[in-house]
Amino acid sequence: MIPRLVMSLLLLLPLLGCLYILAGAVAVGRYARRRPHPAAAFPSITLLKPLHGAEPGLYENLASFCAQDYPGPVQLVFGVTDVRDPAVLVVERLRHAFPLKELTLVIDPRRHGSNPKMSNLANMAEVIRHDTVILSDSDMRVGPDYLRRVAGELQRPGTGGVTCLYHGVAAAGVWSRLSALAIDTHFLPGVVTGLGCGLAQPCFGSTIALGRGTFDAIGGAEAFADQLADDHAMGAAVRAQGLGVAVPSFTIGHLCSEASLGALWAHELRWARTIKSIDPAGHAGSIITHAFPLALVAAALGGGLPALALAGLAVVGRVALCLRLERAYGLPRHPYWLIPARDLLSFAVFVTSYLGHGVNWRGHLYRLVPDGTLMTDRRPPSR
């Protein structure tokens, strides 16, 4: 028999979770209505795209950055570490499709630390030609006004960097749809709620836009070559310069291409352990965001109808949040019937994040130490 006080606490957690979902729906609508900062000038831009393999949708992702309606000079730099990387052929396709664009390919195997992406970026940085530097992951997809919007935000007074919120774009299959749901119903509203409360200071690999002087002042990409949470560390370094990191109200697309449960699990576990390493208190507090599985736990332990009612309320709230998000950002409809499974999977990832420190990143095994540093680990990561 569960003591009454314990059962009350078990019911309180999903109740708070339902209120959190409601707060997220309100925050998303408000944040999406924020007015952008128009660009007063159009500085020259170097856009850095580190590549690794011909991942699904890569050509379309990169092409969206080439097809920008931007009046200033733009240099697009792509980087790989091996001349045999299939991404090289994708860049060649881009050169044929966009012959008037300045496309530079850097092939350089040098390693500057344990983070392969930042090593790649450090090599690419040697060919930067312009005043503004934008780092963006290869799985992002943008609209033609992306550079105009980012340039405008970077001109806000006191701003040293710009990062972008992102929504999920499912490539194909149930696993990619579950991945997109995680972004749109957990990650995105969580960040926006944190921004609204003044608790979040995000910086994402989706976009990190910096003036060249700021990029050099924080040590360039090489200074973060041992960090798993390299984007977060770069944002912290910009703020340490006394400058802000702007987060505009629009979102860009993150292509979710997971083709199996194993790929989805490895990606989300790496993500969860990264967050745990940089914000352990916030990660622990995020337990209240798992209202549906917490209500099921309470029901299994004797919570009865109140627990089942909270479970139903949590699912309805998550669907309402999803609808709000779709309307605010003009996104296509999600498969709402996957929401209960999505919530259960998110809770399983949350619990497992505390059962080890290993991460699997692009087939390489690493161990994450408490300060967020990546250490090469030959052993299979803890799952």
Automatic annotation (TrEMBL):
<keyword id="KW-0472">Membrane</keyword>
<keyword id="KW-0808">Transferase</keyword>
<dbReference type="InterPro" id="IPR025993">
    <property type="entry name" value="Ceramide_glucosylTrfase"/>
</dbReference>
<comment type="pathway">
    <text>Lipid metabolism; sphingolipid metabolism.</text>
</comment>
<dbReference type="InterPro" id="IPR029044">
    <property type="entry name" value="Nucleotide-diphossugar_trans"/>
</dbReference>
<keyword id="KW-1133">Transmembrane helix</keyword>
<dbReference type="InterPro" id="IPR017835">
    <property type="entry name" value="Hopen-assoc_HpnI"/>
</dbReference>
<dbReference type="GO" id="GO:0008120">
    <property type="term" value="F:ceramide glucosyltransferase activity"/>
</dbReference>
<dbReference type="Pfam" id="PF13506">
    <property type="entry name" value="Glyco_transf_21"/>
</dbReference>
<protein>
    <submittedName>
        <fullName>Ceramide glucosyltransferase</fullName>
        <ecNumber>2.4.1.80</ecNumber>
    </submittedName>
</protein>
<keyword id="KW-0812">Transmembrane</keyword>
<keyword id="KW-0328">Glycosyltransferase</keyword>
<feature type="transmembrane region" description="Helical">
    <location>
        <begin position="294"/>
        <end position="316"/>
    </location>
</feature>
<comment type="pathway">
    <text>Sphingolipid metabolism.</text>
</comment>
